[in-house]
Amino acid sequence: MFETTKTYEIILANMLASVPSNFDKRQGSVIYNALAPVAVELAQTYIDLDSLLNNAFADTALDNYLNLKCSEIGITRNLASKTIQKGVFTGASSAPLNIDIGSRFTVANSNINFIATEKIADGQFKMQCEVAGAIGNTVIGQLLPISYINGLETANLTEILIFGEDTESNDDLRVRYYNKVQNNAQDGNVAQFIEWANENDGIGRSKVFPLWDGDNTVKVSILDATNDIASTELIAEFQEYLDPDSEGLGEGKAIIGSIVTVTTATGLTINVSATITLNTGYTMEDAQTQAEEAIEQYLRNISYVLNNVSVIALGSAMLATNAISSVSDLLLNDGVSDISLSTEQIPQLGTVTLV
Predict the structure, then answer these.
(1) How far is CA 120 from each of CA 59, 92, 142, 247, rounded to the nearest angstrom?
(2) pLDDT tens-digit series, residues 10-63
(3) Alpha carbons 132 and 34: distance in angstroms, whole number
(4) Cα dist. 347→117, 259, 296 in Å?
(5) Among 1, 46, 117, 262, which lies 20 to 30 A Cα-Cα from 92?
C-alpha cells in the first residue's frame, strides 16, 4: 500500500519542499543532513506498516500471523507428521521373528531411523519414522538394528502404511481457512466431514456420500496424502476418529445417530502409448522417465477432482517435459477417447510405451 508513495526519496523530497526556499537544501547542507535520517526512519515505519497491514488479512498473512488469523475461527496449522511403514522381520530359516516394541532401526545407506510401535502379525510391525515430515516416505528396504537383536536374520521396510507430511504450507492453510469461512462447516454437514479429513495426518482428498445406505448413514471415501488409494491402516484410524465400529453412538467426531463408514477409492489402470519426438540432447530413456513422472503427477492431480482422464491434458503433461518436443498417436488403454471414472474410482498408471 505504501511501497510506491512513501519511499525514502519521496518522503525526503516532501520534507525539503516544506522548507523555505531561502535556505540551502542541497545534499550535504545542514537542512538536508538533518532531514535525511528522519526520512530513512519514516520510510522504514511505512514498510513496517505495510507488513502489519498485509498480516492482518488471511489472503496475505504469512507464517505465525496466518496461524493467529486462522485461530480466530478454530483452525490450527497441521504440523509435520511421521511416516508409518510396515516392517517385516525374519529369523532362522526365514521364519517370522517378533521384535520388541520400541526396537530402533536405521534404513540402510541413510541416516533415517524407524522405531517399532505396534505388532501387525508375526514378524510384521508398524514402524514409525523418528523424524516428522515427508522424508520418511523416501526410503524403503533393508533395516539395520541400532541395538543387537538376538536371532534377527533380515529386517526390511516393505510398504508405506501412512504417509508422513511436512508442516502445512501457508497456501494450504489459507485454503482450509477459506473453505471453513465459505462453506460453513458445522453440525456434521458435508463440509464438516471434509474438514475433519483435511485435519487428519496422512489423508489427501475426500468425498462424502450422505444417506448412502439408508437414513442416518454417511460414507466418507478418502485418499492418502499422495491422493492415491488409502491403506487399510489409514482407513481404520479415520474410522476410529469419526465413528468407532460404525455404530453411530457419538463416540467420535460424528454426531450421535450418524453411522459413518470410511472407505477408499478403487483404481482404474491407465496404459499409455504414444509416438514422440525427442528434444536435442535427450535420449529415449530420459523421455520415458520424464513422461512417467509427468503422467503420474497428472493422474494424482485429478484424483477425486475430475471424473475423466483427458487425452489432451495427458498429452500436454508429456509435452511439458524437457525431453519431449512432440506427441502423436496417443492412446489411453488402446483407445483415442477420454476415459471416464466412476464416483469412487481414481486413475492409476500402468505401462507407458513410447516409440
Answers:
(1) 45, 20, 19, 25
(2) 888 888 988 888 888 888 889 888 999 999 999 999 888 888 888 888 888 989
(3) 54
(4) 33, 29, 9
(5) 117
Give me the torsion for CA of 46, 52, 58, 62, rounded to 10°. 100
Torsion-angle region of 180 (φ positive above 0: left; ψ -120 to 50: alpha; else: beta) = alpha
Cα dihedral 169, 209, 347, 163 sign: positive
The CA distance from 338 to 309, in Å, is: 6
Residue 126 is placed in which grid cell? 508398524
Q: Beta strands of 28-112 (E only): which ranges? A: 84-90, 104-107
Cell of 288: 520415458
Using the structure block, give the residue that is written with the C-alpha cell 454437514.
189
More confident site: 50 or 137: 137
Q: Which amino acid is at 296?
A: E
Residues 6+ apart with CB under 8 A from 312: none
- CA–CA gap between residue 326 and residue 319 (Å, rounded): 6
pTM: 0.71
Strands (E), 102-186: 104-107, 113-121, 124-129, 141-145, 154-162
Distant-in-sequence, close-in-space partners of 109: CB < 8 Å, separation ≥ 6: none
Alpha carbon distance 145, 249 (integer Å):
44
Distance CA 62, CA 75 (A): 15
DSSP 231: P
Nearest to 122 by CA among 161, 158, 154, 87: 87
Q: Tell me how crowded residue 123 is: count the other CB atoms within 10 A of its CB.
A: 19
